[in-house]
Specification:
Order of helices and strands: HHHHH
Oligomer: single chain
Shape: elongated
Radius of gyration: 19 Å
Number of helices: 5
Number of strands: 0
Structural class: mainly alpha
Length: 161
C-alpha cells in the first residue's frame, strides 16, 4: 500500500465519522476542527512510517487525501443523517441561540429549516465536503512542523526520469 494512502485512509475515516455523528459534529463549527485534526493525524501517521523526513508538501498531500476520504464518508452517511436528525438539531440550536441572542434565534431557525429539505441538505453537504477537504489539507500541512523532529537529515534526491 502506498505510504501516504494508509495514513490518509485512517485520518479520513476518523474525520468523516466524527463529522457525521449528531451533536459531536458541532465541533466542526469551530473552523472545521475535526477536519484539521484528521489531516494532522494523517500527517502524524505518515511521519511515523516515513524513513526520511517529511516535507510540508507531503503533509499537504496526505491531508488532502484524508479530506477526500472524510468528505466521501460525510456525503454518503452525513447527508441522510442530517435529513433524519435535522429537526432535533434545529430545536437544540434554536434553544442555544435563544439563550445567547434571542433576536437572532428566529433568523437562525429559518435558515436551519431551509436546509432540512433534500436539496438544502445536498447543497449543505457538498459545501461541507469541500470545507472538509480544504481544512484537512491545512491540518496535514500543519502536522509536519508539529510532528517532524528529524530536522538534520537531508531528504533523498527526486527520482531520475
Amino acid at each position: 500500500m502506498n505510504s501516504k494512502l494508509k495514513p490518509a485512509l485512517i485520518g479520513g475515516v476518523v474525520l468523516g465519522i466524527l463529522s457525521v455523528i449528531p451533536f459531536v459534529n458541532i465541533v466542526n463549527l469551530c473552523c472545521c476542527l475535526w477536519a484539521i485534526l484528521g489531516g494532522a493525524l494523517a500527517s502524524y501517521m505518515y511521519i511515523q512510517s516515513s524513513p526520511t523526513p517529511a516535507r510540508p508538501g507531503d503533509g499537504a498531500v496526505v491531508g488532502l487525501l484524508a479530506g477526500v476520504v472524510g468528505a466521501l464518508i460525510f456525503i454518503v452517511i452525513g447527508i441522510p443523517i442530517s435529513l433524519v436528525m435535522g429537526s432535533a438539531m434545529t430545536g437544540v440550536m434554536g434553544r442555544l441561540m435563544e439563550s445567547v441572542d434571542p433576536s437572532q434565534a428566529e433568523v437562525m431557525r429559518r435558515q436551519m429549516e431551509a436546509s432540512q429539505t433534500v436539496a438544502g441538505a445536498i447543497i449543505n453537504g457538498l459545501v461541507m465536503a469541500i470545507l472538509l477537504v480544504i481544512f484537512s489539507m491545512l491540518g496535514g500541512l500543519l502536522g509536519v512542523p508539529l510532528f517532524e523532529k528529524r530536522k538534520g537529515m537531508t531528504p533523498p534526491p527526486p527520482p531520475a526520469m
